[in-house]
Amino acid sequence: MELYQLQYFVAVAQEGSFTRAARRCLVSQPTLSQQIQKLERELGQPLFQRLGRRVELTEAGRVLYEKAQNILQLAQQAQHEVEEISGQGMGRVIVGAIPTVAPYLLPDLVQQFQTQFPQAELAIDEDLTDHLIAKCVQGELDLAIMALPIEHDQLTVESLWSEPLLLAVSRQHPLAKKSKITMRDLSKEPFILLDEMHCLGQQIVEFCNRQAYTPLVCCHSAQLLTVQEMVALGHGVSLVPEMAAAANTDDRVVYRRLAGNTPRRTLAVVWHKHRFLSGAARAWLELLRRHRQKRRNNRSAKASKASSPF
Predict the structure, then answer these.
(1) CATH number, residue 280
(2) Is 303 exposed, middle or buried (0-12, 13-18, 19+ CB in 10 A)?
(3) Is residue 307 part of a domain?
(4) Calpha distance 131→152 (Å, rounded)
(5) Residues 11, 65: one domain?
(6) Are 143 and 96 in contact (CB under 8 A)?
(7) Mean pLDDT across the chain
(8) Residue 113, in any domain of the structure
(9) Which of 92, 171, 242, 262 has a beta carbon 3.0–4.6 Å from 163's, enabling a disulfide?
(10) In terms of domains, do 156 and 184 share one?
(11) What 3-state class would DSSP assign to 286?
């Protein structure tokens, strides 16, 4: 039983297809199929049920799948630790982030990281929450940045910071000139909502429901930029994260904090509890922690200035 055979086996199990698994492993499909067959002969058990173009794990395959994941992760961890000891730079770090965070947070952090650690190798993976969680569990990511709640017994979850969700309205909208805006003011407004495949879309709906408010959704979008453009054109209102509002330079959109129970989201960084973190991964984690402290200091400074009588 060879490691590459286990890699092929895990890829087929996860992709549910020999064709997609071969593409993922950068080998031809006949080569991959031959190695899977060789593994099955060695174990004396079929590992997959071939159902036309689709394949499913047999009972023996399910047993091997769990063990194979652990074996591959341990092998990767051993390689990383040996590379660290042998002094081959800081190693590699793969950082995941959800789409409603990546374009607003990562560019500055990536620049800081590459300036401070030019010898490190960095890769970014922007994906949905469920996919990032799966990749962390499977050992494909070192770290991932996403929004709480996150519940998985194999992951370490460290909170970073909380940010408000701001009401986005067209500058020409009557609400843009209102001194105080509540959820009741939105009851008859057409709402442009981020698709619920994004955790943010789910969180917005949940917040509205807790306020006994059902948004009159006129449009769903998979991109925050599209949401903001629709708002700018006067097609409706929306709720967007503070970091997205701060990055938007379009003066056709006005962002306002809702009065009362302001909707918020909390971001966190996660990683596998048993994954070895390379020097590059640890440096990235420290960069996030420094950024968290910087935000706290800025918030405290603003609060002190606001309360000062002078």
Answers:
(1) 3.40.190.10
(2) exposed
(3) no
(4) 13
(5) yes
(6) yes
(7) 89
(8) yes
(9) 242
(10) no
(11) helix
What tokens appear for 297 in the block?
Answer: 């200091």
- Count CB neighbours of 198 within 10 A: 21
Q: Structurally, how many domains does the chain consist of?
A: 3
CB 271 within 8 A of CB 132: no
In a domain, 54, yes or no: yes
The pLDDT confidence band at residue 159, using thresholds 50, 70 and 90, is very high
Q: What is residue 174's predicted lDDT score, i.e. its pLDDT? A: 93
Instruction: Supply the CATH number for residue 73's domain.
Output: 1.10.10.10
CA diameter of the chain: 82
Dihedrals phi, psi of 307, to nearest 5 degrees:
-90, -10
Note the pLDDT tens digit of each residue in 232-269. 999 999 999 999 999 999 999 999 999 988 899 999 99
Which two tokens mark 100? Answer: 């409603």
What share of residues in the chain are helix, strand, coil (percent, to 5)? 50, 25, 30
The token pair that represents 161 in the structure block:
């910071």
Would you say 43 and 81 are in contact if contact means Cβ atoms under 8 Å apart? no
Give the predicted TM-score (pTM) of the model: 0.72
Q: What is the dihedral of CA 295, 296, 299, 305, to 10 degrees?
A: -120
Q: At what angle do helices 3-15 and 29-43 cross, to 10 degrees?
A: 110
* Residue 44 zone, left/alpha/beta (φ > 0; ψ -120 to 50; rest): left
Separation between Cα atoms, residue 21 and residue 32, nearest integer Å = 8
| Structural domain boundaries, residue 106 | 92-160+266-300
